[in-house]
Specification:
Low-confidence stretches: none
Number of domains: 1
Strand content: 5-15%
Radius of gyration: 19 Å
Bound molecules: coproporphyrinogen III
Distance between the termini: 18 Å
Number of helices: 16
Order of helices and strands: HHHHEHEEHHHEHHHEHEHEHEHEH
Mean pLDDT: 97
CATH topology: TIM Barrel
Oligomer: single chain
Number of strands: 9
Length: 346
């Protein structure tokens, strides 16, 4: 059976415009909170294929989105490279021993050995594929090398990125060595996700905006393109979605390049500009401001405006970043229903 989401990613005409939401499996769903309580903590949930499968499928059942996204986290990659990840309540992710030198990097596991340690992710994918309806797609994902490196170098989330940027400007060779090692693991990790059954792959560059536009290609985009092109050469039928958040200036200057299928447009980038610059080459995904979900009227207004701009062609509805935990479920459902309504789903 053909999957409308996969067809749309490949630029084929579809009977309506598919929709999903970044971070659609998560804390705004009471059903998620129940499973997470059973798991004890977030990482246990990622490590348990039965429970990870259950929460992956929840938004498909509850909201009728057109694609499921694998439940996991981008940070399981550095964790399995040997970085000891923990999630501190109220503070987010933490690595106890951030990378400060080449010796620290050399101690990390790389290549196939690291990719082989993520078996629980591959097992989760295989299990989801036995349960997901045939007409729905499964999205696998990774963080971009840059976004992963920010956590590996800072040891946690950051507002200023000062430790990474100190390295960027004073020891760029070390930063490139880190990005190289992560890129090589990510390529093999995504190959294994594809072999396990994902239908589409998304690369999240959540912290793209931390890099000045003239350095963005050097420190992030080129590595993302290398991963995408490696996967497209081996698996041409698997669409690749690139999501660099906060790069309007990079788009506007015409600097986006590479062989991939879908460009994820963040909420700070006008969709009409993205369409003008990228719409012929790439299918566009996005880009409602996630906080519009707090108001049904504001949601409808945006969905109609996006439909007007994109005309139901070469478009996938989504938010311009992840849904927040305090959004009412019925408002999330309203968003999905409105996307289907304006694009003619019956
Ligand atoms: O529906 C989905 O998208 C589910 C899978 C998913 C999670 N994280 C689950 C998660 C995905 C695709 C991610 C990606 C991710 N993780 C990104 C890139 C996407 C983005 O939003 O920009 C980033 C930067 C991370 C790192 C991360 N993980 C942070 C900063 C945090 C803490 C902040 C937060 O949102 O709580 C996490 C934890 C995390 N990852 C949660 C979930 C559901 C919350 C954990 C919980 O308390 O249950």
């Amino acid at each position: 059976m053909s999957k409308i989401f996969v067809d749309a990613c490949l630029g084929k005409e579809t009977p309506y415009t598919p929709v999903w939401m970044m971070r659609q499996a998560g804390r705004y769903l009471p059903e998620y909170m129940e499973v997470r309580a059973k798991a004890g903590n977030f990482l246990n949930l990622c490590h348990n294929p039965e429970m990870a499968c259950e929460v992956t499928l929840q938004p498909v059942d509850i909201l009728d989105v057109d694609a499921a996204i694998l439940f996991s986290d981008i940070l399981v990659i550095p964790d399995e490279m040997g970085m000891d990840l923990s999630f501190v309540k109220g503070e987010g992710p933490k690595f106890s021993d951030p990378i400060t030198s080449e010796a620290d990097l050399d101690r990390l596991i790389g290549g196939q050995e690291a990719a082989n340690k993520l078996t629980y992710v591959y097992d989760t994918i295989k299990l989801i594929k036995t349960k997901l309806a045939d007409d729905k797609a499964l999205i696998g994902f990774t963080g971009s090398p840059w976004t992963l490196a920010t956590y590996m170098i800072e040891g946690q989330g950051t507002k200023t990125y000062n430790i990474c940027k100190k390295m960027m400007y004073s020891n760029p060779e070390l930063l490139h060595k880190i990005l190289r090692k992560v890129t090589d693991v990510v390529k093999l990790y995504m190959e294994k996700q594809i072999e396990s059954g994902i239908d589409v792959a998304q690369i999240f560059d959540s912290w793209a905006a931390a890099i000045e536009p003239s350095k963005y290609d050097e420190f992030s985009w080129q590595y993302m393109v290398e991963i995408a092109e490696h996967l497209k050469a081996k698996y041409p039928h698997v669409p690749i979605i690139m999501f660099p958040k906060g790069v309007a200036a990079f788009i506007e200057r015409g600097l986006v390049y590479g062989n991939f299928d879908v460009f994820g447009v963040d909420w700070g980038t006008p969709m009409a500009m993205a369409k003008e610059k990228l719409g012929e080459k790439y299918v566009l995904q996005g880009n409602m401001e996630p906080c519009r979900l707090y108001s049904k009227e504001a949601t409808t207004e945006c969905v109609e405006a996006l439909q007007e701009i994109m005309g139901g062609k070469r478009h996938i509805f989504n938010l311009g970043h992840g849904i927040l935990p305090d959004v009412p479920v019925e408002n999330a459902k309203h968003f999905i229903d409105e996307c289907h309504r304006v694009s003619g789903k019956r």
